[in-house]
C-alpha cells in the first residue's frame, strides 16, 4: 500500500446524497508526513438552476452566503465532467486503491462520492486517515481550501 494520502474536501447542498448535490470539489495528495506532493483540481459544479431551489438546507444557505452557488452557476464543469476530472487526476498521481483518503468531512464526502462519482469511488481506497494524526497536512489543507474558496 502507498504511503501517500489523498485529501478531499467538497461542499454539498445538503446531507442526503440521494437528493442533494456536490457543489464544489477539491483534492490534493501528500506524502505520509503531510508534505504536499500534488495539487489536484478545484472546481465548482454547474447544475441545472432548478436543482438549487430544491434544497432548503443549512448547507445551501451557507453556500449562498459564501458565493458557492454563484461559482456553480458560472462554472463550465458539468457533473459528469467533474467525475472525469477527478478520476483522471487520481489515475495520473496515485495507484488504484492504494492510498488512504482524508479530509475534514471525509466520511460524509465519501458517501457523496459513492453516489455521484462512482468511478472515483471505485478507484479510491476505502481506508480513512484521521486529521488529528497529520497536523501539518491538516493545516496545509485548511490554508489551501480557504485560499481556493
UniProtKB/TrEMBL annotation:
<dbReference type="InterPro" id="IPR036397">
    <property type="entry name" value="RNaseH_sf"/>
</dbReference>
<dbReference type="InterPro" id="IPR013520">
    <property type="entry name" value="Ribonucl_H"/>
</dbReference>
<protein>
    <submittedName>
        <fullName>Probable oligoribonuclease</fullName>
    </submittedName>
</protein>
<dbReference type="InterPro" id="IPR012337">
    <property type="entry name" value="RNaseH-like_sf"/>
</dbReference>
<feature type="domain" description="Exonuclease">
    <location>
        <begin position="6"/>
        <end position="125"/>
    </location>
</feature>
<dbReference type="Pfam" id="PF00929">
    <property type="entry name" value="RNase_T"/>
</dbReference>
<dbReference type="GO" id="GO:0003676">
    <property type="term" value="F:nucleic acid binding"/>
</dbReference>
Amino acid at each position: 500500500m502507498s504511503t501517500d494520502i489523498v485529501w478531499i474536501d467538497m461542499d454539498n447542498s445538503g446531507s442526503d446524497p440521494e437528493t442533494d448535490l456536490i457543489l464544489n470539489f477539491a483534492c490534493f495528495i501528500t506524502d505520509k508526513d503531510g508534505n504536499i506532493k500534488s495539487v489536484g483540481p478545484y472546481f465548482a459544479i454547474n447544475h441545472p438552476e432548478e436543482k438549487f431551489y430544491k434544497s432548503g438546507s443549512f448547507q445551501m444557505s451557507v453556500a449562498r452566503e459564501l458565493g458557492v452557488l454563484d461559482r456553480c452557476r458560472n462554472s463550465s464543469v458539468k457533473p459528469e465532467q467533474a467525475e472525469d476530472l477527478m478520476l483522471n487526476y487520481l489515475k495520473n498521481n496515485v495507484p488504484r486503491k492504494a492510498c488512504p483518503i482524508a479530509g475534514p468531512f471525509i466520511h460524509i464526502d465519501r458517501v457523496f462520492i459513492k453516489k455521484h462519482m462512482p468511478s472515483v469511488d471505485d478507484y479510491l481506497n476505502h481506508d480513512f486517515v484521521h486529521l488529528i494524526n497529520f497536523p501539518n497536512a491538516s493545516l496545509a489543507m485548511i490554508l489551501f481550501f480557504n485560499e481556493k474558496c
